[in-house]
Amino acid sequence: MKSFREPSILPGFGLTLGFSTFFLSAIVLIPLAAMVVKTATMGWHDFLAVLLNPRAVASYKLTFGCSLLAALINSVFGFLIAWTLVRYEFPGRKFIDALIDMPFALPTAVSGIALTAVFAENGALGQYLVPLGIKVAYTWIGIVVALTLIGLPFVVRSIQPALQEVQRDLEDAAETLGAGRFYIFRRIILPTVLPALLTGFTLAFARAVGEFGSVTFIAGNLPMKTEITPLLIVIKLEQFDYKGAAALGFIMLVMSFIMLMSINLLQAWGRRRIVAAGR
Amino acid sequence: MAAGPSSAILAELASRPGRDTATSTIFKWLFISLSLLFLMALLFAPLIMVFAAAFEKGIGMYFNSFKDPDTLAAIRLTLLTAAIVVPANILFGITAAWSIAKFEFKGKSFLITLIDLPIAVSPVISGLVYVLLFGAQGWFGTWLQDHDISIVFAMPGIVLATMFVTFPYVARELIPLMQQLGNDEEEAAITLGAGGLMTFFHVTLPKVRWGLLYGVILCNARAMGEFGAVSVVSGHIRGLTTTMPLHVEILYNEYNFVGAFAVASLLTLLAVVTLVIKTLVEWRTGYKQ
Asked: What is d(CA A96, CA A100) in angstroms, rounded to the nearest whole number?
């Protein structure tokens, strides 16, 4: 065990590592393992039956489709907002900057009922959208809106530091050499920001896939139509179908693992690129 | 950012002809307007809506909603849950950060990934795992029933599920901060004969206190506002196992909109206070996550 850790004169290694791994195991790892074991006891046939049930398949399509769309919208507007906050001075900039984190701090139940009220037929924005034929509340569009709100700070906060890293003198040099605005954006700004943008996109997407609170209020929760996978898990639990719930939970856990690993890889890629650029 | 070109050079560059053309100005205001419009629809409108709906029938009705004993019970349960979860999280965050940041050992990055896991997992799953363990048909369900202990559909389940979702909050702030600050001062203190606890409280803690505060307020906001995980384990027993976010749902589903938005307005204020403290910490330390 000598090579397990490097020598240090600081005390408390065994105690702190022991306590934190114990706490981590008790609260997170063992319960998650229990879910995996529960799924494993049900056998392939039952497992696939739950997984490929049409109602479940419809919920995956909705959950991943809406999350993807929300993350894409956030990539565009998140970039725009990050750009505005980093590059421009305008009154209220610091206030807006602080407010971007609101979805982190705001309970999802609150954003859920508030968005539903805003986009309902008689709501502040809904009263203008519904006559145009755009129904947001109680449709998939509402789910996208709720997921966009949840994911926005992830994208903005990922891009902001990267945008500050862009070397302005490079842009100036390019401009002196006759490069146009779009060319500078495509060849200088975008390559520097790309890893951060992809990280933000993946973080927002991962958060959106698991989101439950705000969506339940605005979605309307119609089976096959506006029922997301986390809600289906809750419904199965309410019917005491523990195995079915565990199976769906297991699939979502696998997806989370994949996304967590992609985020780590993306961040490592971004660091390598910065090192390669000589900074 | 410290290594960038000096501000004098930047100012000189900014004053060069060609940079501040009319097109630049048009782009600037176009981008600012688009950003604000997007935030207005998505963020400001819902926030204003919370208070507009809460005060729709007047201030009297607003404050009347807080006379409902079930609402008061929900507020009490939320505060109590946070009072248990946040200190536990601080203890875990500090011990995890000490072992990870101060020592080099095998499997460290894997341990960090495991600590981050609850962030990536759906809150519904955070509740589900405890139901599978402690629910009526769960692994320990029969044993718990025989011994008359209820975890799921009772307060212990709510505390456990909240602990699960808030798990990484303090550790995530402390680990990078303590790694960045290094071990030199702690090693000096130990060499001079200070004990481990004394070194922590007199050397390490003063250096990381803002980072710790940052993690604590985010942890607290999440603990008080969590919906999905708690919803799964709570059983929604009115006045007994409903936290504030769950009580919002109950009132909302009963079409008691003033009551629902009144409780929601308290949670919104909590979020605002959290953001204010967070921003102050960032300004004070120049520190951003």
From this structure: 6
Contacts of A24 in chain B (CB under 8 A): 92, 96, 111, 114-115, 167
- Which tokens sit at B260? 């629902």
Q: Is the ipTM here above 0.85? A: yes
pLDDT of residue B141: 84
* CA A93 distance to own-chain centroid: 25
Architecture of the domain made up of B59-285: Orthogonal Bundle (1.10)
Rounded to an integer, what distance in angstroms lies between the CA atom of residue A116 and that of residue B26?
Answer: 35
Residue A113 phi, psi dihedral angles, 5° rounding: -70, -35
Question: What's the pLDDT at A1?
Answer: 47
User: How far is residue B130's CA from residue B3's CA, in Å, rounded to a whole number?
Assistant: 49
Q: Where are the domains of chain B?
A: 1-54, 59-285
Token readout for A130 is 């519904």
Angle between helices A54-87 and B22-39 (to 10 degrees): 140
Say yes or no: B79 contacts chain A, CB-CB below 8 A.
Answer: no
Q: Do A10 and B102 touch (CB under 8 A)?
A: yes
Q: How far apart are CA B105 and CA B99, in angstroms?
A: 9
Tokens at B77, concatenated:
């349960």
What phi and psi values does residue B282 have, to the nearest 5 degrees? Answer: -65, -40
Give B245's contacts in chain A (Cβ within 8 Å). Answer: 107-110, 213
Distance CA B196, CA A12 (A): 7
**Which residues in chain B touch residue A127, judged by CB atoms under 8 angstroms apart?**
none
CA distance A259 to A269: 15
Q: Write the single-letter amino acid at A54.
A: P
Sign of CA dihedral B63, B64, B66, B71: negative
Which residues, listed in sequence order, are joined to residue A5 by a DSSP beta bridge? B105
- Specify whether domain A41-161+192-276 bears CATH 1.10.3720.10: yes
Nearest CB to A98: which of B1, B104, B275?
A: B275
pLDDT digits (tens, 9 = 90+) for A86-120: 999 999 999 999 999 999 999 999 999 999 999 99
Cα-only R_g, chain B:
24
Q: For A174-197, write each residue's pLDDT tens digit.
A: 888 888 888 888 888 888 899 899
- Residue ranges of domains in chain A: 41-161+192-276
All residue ranges of chain A with pLDDT < 70 are 1-3, 274-279
CA dihedral A241, A244, A250, A256 (to 10 degrees): -90
